[in-house]
Amino acid sequence: MNYNFVKTLNPKEQFLFRYSICTLVSKPVEYQEMLDSFVLAGFDPAFSEYLCIDNSQTNTYEAFAGLNRLLREAKGKYIILCHQDILLHDHQIDELELRIKEIDLIDPKWAILSNAGGINLKYVSMHLTQKTGNRLLEKILPIKAQSVDENFILVKSDANLALSNDLKGFHMYGTDICLIADTLGFNSYLIDFNLTHKSDGNADHSFDKVRVELMKKYQRAFRGRFMSTTITRFYISGNYLFFILFNSGIIMFLVRQYYKAFRPKSKYIAKNISK
Questions:
Q1: Which domain range does residue 82 map to?
Q2: Contact present, 152 and 114 (Cβ < 8 Å)
Q3: How many domains are contained in the chain?
Q4: Rg (Cα) of the chain, in Å, rounded?
Q5: 180, 204, 220 - which closes a domain
Q6: Which pTM was predicted?
């Protein structure tokens, strides 16, 4: 048989574009202003693709599903998820390239770069210009972040990131994608790339709703649990004591007896949950 239909992958990954600039658009005029600023800043369409989802007439996609669609469609080495109400001015493409090279040297396992976000329970970092012209300039950059603001998120394409399928809305996806990156073994950073963001944010009722849903989602996702493979069994948990205790032989034996008595295989038969 002729096996010429098999494609052998090049060890060095190839990308059709250097950048993919991805945006949810509800105000076309504002989006056009954003586009003009990107092109003037050096993001030439010759090596930068511009992808958008048109929400100007109706919400075709909310943010989680829409940005996942954009992440799937993007063909750039670096994917920029950004708001339509940002304008590039101080820094251009050359500065961004320098920041990327800087992070590559510091931490090759980075996946996300942004201009604002949360550092820990006490500190946040902001490095952008507000609509009023007020400049919020962080002195300590680059700096590792727990979460990033949604106005400008640069994602390294080969990190293969996506947003949660079980969250919806237009808030907190910057936090979600950072948690996903951390789970996959990547880090997030804030960098010196100043731009104007015309909005100071809108922590309305919908924000509170997504915040609670995100908290519940990760409570469930990071729960301690017993795991079984075809050749081994173990317990995973972020709690060190539980990790040691529940991986002991006697506990593993007792839990197997519980499953044998109360959770037989028939309990796991696939059921239609779409109804």
A1: 17-220
A2: yes
A3: 2
A4: 22
A5: 220
A6: 0.90
